[in-house]
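Attaching the record inline, Q. Sequence:
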Amino acid sequence: MTYVVTDNCIRCKYMDCVEVCPVDCFYEGENMLVIHPDECIDCGVCEPECPAEAIRPDTEPGLDSWLQLNSEYSEKWPNISTKGEAPSDAKEMDGVTGKFEKFFSPEPGEGD
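Structure, as predicted:
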C-alpha cells in the first residue's frame, strides 16, 4: 500500500503534508503535489494533515489512475520537504469538481 494525492489538491496545494512526511516523498508540480509510491512508507501521517482531504490510500477503489499519475510525475517534478505558501484562492478551489480536466498542469514546481 501507498498513499496518493488526488485531484482536490489541484490549485489548493496546501502543503501541510510535506512538513510531516518522515521520508520526504512529496514532489511539487506547478499547481499540485504528488507522492512517490516507491518512497512512501505507508505511515499515513500525511493523510489527516491535508485540509483538502486530497490524500488517500491507494487501496481505495478507483484510485488506479491517481497511483499512475503520482508515479509518473514524482519522477519528473522536484522533491519538496518544506511547506510553502498555498495559493491565495485555495479555499475557493477546495471541493471544485472536474479540477483535473480544467486545471491540471504538467509543469514542475520549484521544489526545495
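The first strand starts at residue 3 and ends at 5. The mean pLDDT is 96.

More tomorrow.
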